[in-house]
Specification:
Blueprint: E1 58-60, E2 74-79, E3 83-84, H1 97-109, E4 115-119, E5 125-129, H2 131-140, E6 144-149, H3 154-168, H4 174-191, H5 207-214, H6 219-227, H7 233-240, H8 246-252, H9 257-270, H10 276-287, H11 293-300, H12 314-317, H13 327-350
Parallel strand pairs: 3-5, 4-6
Antiparallel strand pairs: 1-2, 2-6, 4-5
Helix pairs in contact: 1-2, 3-4, 4-5, 4-6, 5-6, 8-10, 9-11
Length: 358
């Protein structure tokens, strides 16, 4: 695969999501103070030979994420108007409990951990890591954000951004994971095996295998998540809102967009999403050009049979069986005990009730 060694700056013209004008605040964070931030613990950032505008104040780093400093590392406090979100950033900025806690922390202590940015071709800096910190800093009233500048290729930036968010975020939506994994896969395909390193453990591996290993997932699950990108927004929202099961959504992602829109309308009208088996049938009918709005309505209107299965997991059974018992042995023992219980209990139930003596 072709090497990608040239440092390519993004040409994104996306507007910043934060205020374009600096926010007036009574006090700025203390220059050079960079204690570790509890909410985020990102990888060490290194800056080398980066041209920084003279009007931006530089501060040499004394500590960065409790890692011994390197001579080329420095922190720059950059105005919000100079910071731009990552192009097609897949992760949302949500006003949730974690964000409110981060804002409170920033109000009390300032931004402890610098964001990681890279220079933009059209001026300003693109955020690689630190979108939540920038949002919290603006909400807390800070006009600037401490940043570490780093030169990165597009592929390096994508991998750094996605891996950081996967490692640090506790609640990731299915749509976010789907988009981020697709970005990783595309970046790895473009990047190839760097420098032809024969000792590289990723040599001769397929791109989806590399993505799976980096994210501690199976290749099958990586493929399933990436398939979700083919869902229309209404159906993808159903997955994020947990109104539709993941596996059912994967099957629907292979259906033509026109029929997906019919499915979305049917879900809204009937207030019920298709089950896994229904989604699989719809997929098969769509592949045979036999799926339409009437068929979709008919499938969703089917009476759903109640699941009468009783499932006991190994953790529940561990208190009754020794560790050397196999599932088959446990099942046989359970059935034997039920037979014994039945033989004792049923005759008693069949006996006529004795009348009280008068």
């Amino acid at each position: 695969m072709a090497k990608t060694n040239t440092k390519v700056k993004p040409k994104s013209k996306a507007k910043a999501t934060m205020p374009e004008q600096p926010i007036e605040t009574p006090s700025e964070p203390v220059e050079g103070a960079t204690p570790s931030e509890p909410e985020v613990a990102e990888e060490e950032a290194i800056v080398s030979n980066v041209q920084v505008p003279d009007e931006i104040q530089n501060t040499m780093v004394e500590t960065l994420s409790q890692t011994p400093p390197k001579a080329s590392e420095f922190i720059i406090h950059i105005s919000h108007s100079e910071l731009f979100p990552f192009k097609e950033h897949p992760f949302q900025l949500r006003d949730d409990e974690d964000m409110r806690a981060l804002i409170a922390s920033v109000k009390e202590r300032g931004v402890d951990q610098p964001a990681i940015v890279r220079p933009r071709e059209n001026g300003g800096f693109e955020l690689i890591m630190g979108h939540r910190r920038q949002f919290a800093a603006a909400a807390a009233g800070y006009s600037k954000v401490p940043c570490v500048i780093r030169e990165m290729t597009d592929e390096e930036a994508v991998l750094a951004m996605t891996e950081s968010n996967f490692n640090q975020r506790s609640d990731i939506l299915a749509s976010e994971r789907a988009k981020a994994l697709k970005m990783q896969l595309d970046a790895i395909k473009r990047q190839g095996v760097r420098n032809g390193d024969k000792n590289n453990p990723e040599l001769n591996k397929r791109s989806n295998e590399i993505v799976a290993e980096r994210n501690r997932m199976s290749v099958k699950n990586v493929q399933r998540y990436i398939a979700l990108n083919n869902l229309i927004p209404e159906l993808l929202q159903c997955v994020d809102d947990k109104k539709m099961k993941f596996i059912a959504a994967v099957d629907l992602s292979y259906i033509k967009p026109k029929n997906q829109r019919y499915i979305a309308l049917a879900i809204e009208a009937q207030e019920a999403a298709p089950t896994g088996s229904q989604a699989q049938r719809m997929r098969e009918l769509d592949q045979n050009d036999m799926l339409n709005a009437d068929v979709i309505d008919g499938i969703l209107l089917e009476e759903r049979k109640e699941d009468t299965r009783v499932i006991l997991n190994s953790q529940e059974l561990s208190q009754y069986f020794s560790a050397d018992k196999t599932p088959r042995e446990m099942k046989e023992q359970i059935l034997k005990l039920l037979d014994e219980w039945k033989s004792r209990e049923v005759p008693e139930l069949d006996q006529p009730t004795k009348h009280e003596e008068r």
